[in-house]
Design a protein that fits this description.
Layout: E1 2-6, H1 11-22, E2 26-31, H2 34-37, E3 47-50, H3 60-64, E4 69-72, H4 85-103, E5 108-114, E6 123-125, H5 136-152, E7 158-164, E8 166-168, H6 177-186, E9 191-193, E10 200-201, E11 203-205, H7 206-217, E12 224-228, E13 234-235, H8 236-247, E14 252-254, E15 268-270
Parallel strand pairs: 1-2, 1-4, 2-3, 4-5, 5-7, 6-15, 7-12, 8-11, 9-14
Antiparallel strand pairs: 10-13
Helix pairs in contact: 1-7, 4-5, 6-8
Length: 280
């Protein structure tokens, strides 16, 4: 398959492109900065295009052609989940880009959604759980999905909306929990400042995420929402303690230094159906 992947140098994108290339696909990798892309081990095995997808005069089809599938991962402004730019700028720009690709004939679109679409709901969250987003980021992502579903009534294409939960692994944002912990260990810090750590979350290694996305993509007949998650909750404190043991560190936890985020429920995790359950 010829696959266009936006956000190819991002946390998920860099691993997904590697997975797709290994599986024999022809990849058009898209990102703003070539200097980041050229560092990727897959760079010479893809067609790389440097472009700002939010350029209002952009005609993406003239640059990217009409692929067998579009994977849209690019989304700026993370982790500033409360920034209104998610609604005011990123949402309309992303919809415009995807709409142009669909209207040109792209038959399959896979978009990365987010567990933030579920809002403040606790417990096991399935794909059938009604979204109740409470942040501009979650609202924008949920709205984009609704816009694209409405577009399906006008133009026939398959939409695969994959809600990502919490990820970890190589390339993660420097301000993510485990990245901060690793820096503190590397710096020889005596203490690691964190919240109380009792919140339950759903974590999945980014390489497993890349495999999951690849498997969904390779079944173009599948349409709808998919939770990309572990399916089992773990407390943030336990996750940190496990990482400390893995690193062989004696760093101590300064629990309760930071308050719990006011935009996340205390305990939630994904309920994950297998791809086979969805109609393989």
């Amino acid at each position: 398959m010829k696959i266009v992947v936006t956000g190819c140098t991002g946390f998920v994108g860099r691993h997904l492109v590697a997975s797709l290339v290994a599986r024999g696909h022809s990849v058009v990798a898209v990102a703003r900065r070539k200097d980041q892309a050229i560092k990727m081990p897959w760079y010479k095995n893809v067609e790389f295009i440097s472009v700002d997808l939010h350029d209002p005069v952009l005609e993406p089809v003239s640059l990217l052609g009409v692929p067998n599938a579009l994977i849209h991962l690019a989304w700026p402004g993370i982790p500033n989940y409360k920034d209104l730019l998610h609604i005011e700028q990123y949402l309309p720009a992303d919809y415009s880009f995807i709409k142009k690709m669909v209207e040109a004939g792209t038959p399959q679109v896979l978009v990365s959604g987010t567990c933030f679409e579920y809002g403040m709901q606790n417990g096991a969250l399935s794909e059938d759980t009604i979204p109740l987003p409470n942040t501009p980021y979650g609202i924008a992502k949920d709205s984009l999905r609704r816009f694209l579903e409405a577009l399906q009534a006008k133009k026939m294409f398959n939409l695969q909306w994959v809600r990502l939960f919490y990820l970890y692994g190589p390339g993660q944002h420097r301000n993510s929990l485990l990245a901060q912990l690793d820096r503190a260990i590397d710096n020889g810090d005596e203490f690691f400042n964190m919240s109380g750590g009792e919140q339950l979350r759903d974590y999945l290694h980014v390489e497993e995420v890349a495999v999951f996305l690849s498997e969904v993509l390779e079944q173009p007949q599948l349409n709808g929402i998919f939770n990309c998650c572990n399916g089992s909750p773990i407390s943030v404190r336990r996750l940190v303690e496990m990482r400390i043991r893995e690193r062989g560190s004696g760093i101590k936890l300064n629990l309760g230094h930071y308050p719990y985020p006011d935009y996340e429920p205390m305990a939630f995790w994904g309920k994950r159906q297998t791809i086979k359950d969805r109609g393989e």
